[in-house]
Amino acid sequence: MEFTKGPIEGVDIRTIRKFIDERGWLAEIFRNDDLPSWFRPEMSYVSLSLPGILRGPHEHVDQADLFCWVGPGDFKLTLWDNRPESPTYRNRMEVAMGANNPGSVLIPKGVVHCYRCISHEPGFVINCPDRLFMGQGKQQPIDEIRHEDDPENPFVLDEKARRAHLA
């Protein structure tokens, strides 16, 4: 399967502004009055990725993600539109975000995504998905299709990165 570089329908990339003063900084990662009406976060979590670590590629059947990168660390996010009904089906896009470019990316269900920590220091990722992990009381199956477990998956960064990931 071939992918073409281009925008992806429903992906919303936003700059996050840091308000800096003598105490440090503050950044709004989302506001309900600024999100599309189809997306409402149900939970949030933060993760730490070590330099060079790749998370994904994977996608969700029913979940949309709102990833936020404000630092520390910088990341490269890659997205593939895997939704046959989408007008941007088989488009691929990349964006770099983190300490040097604070921002958020709203990723609709069915859009395959992965990100790599590209800084020399570990980086934080905040996610505010619109579904509870494993449902209410953690009683449901995980809504995730993990393409990284398939060495033949079509969602590759480049051949060098693919070989390094499989090693």
From TrEMBL:
State the SUPFAM superfamilies in the record: RmlC-like cupins (SSF51182)
The UniProt entry, under InterPro entries, shows: RmlC-like, RmlC-like_jellyroll, RmlC_Cupin_sf
Query: Signal sequence: where?
Result: none
- The EC number on file is 5.1.3.13
The record, for Pfam families, names: dTDP_sugar_isom (PF00908)
Q: Which reaction does it catalyse?
A: dTDP-4-dehydro-6-deoxy-alpha-D-glucose = dTDP-4-dehydro-beta-L-rhamnose
Function according to Swiss-Prot or TrEMBL: Catalyzes the epimerization of the C3' and C5'positions of dTDP-6-deoxy-D-xylo-4-hexulose, forming dTDP-6-deoxy-L-lyxo-4-hexulose.
Database matches in PANTHER family = DTDP-6-DEOXY-D-GLUCOSE-3,5 EPIMERASE (PTHR21047), THYMIDINE DIPHOSPHO-4-KETO-RHAMNOSE 3,5-EPIMERASE (PTHR21047:SF2)
* Protein name as annotated: dTDP-4-dehydrorhamnose 3,5-epimerase
Q: Which organism is it from?
A: Geothrix rubra
Q: Recite the lineage of the species.
A: Bacteria, Pseudomonadati, Acidobacteriota, Holophagae, Holophagales
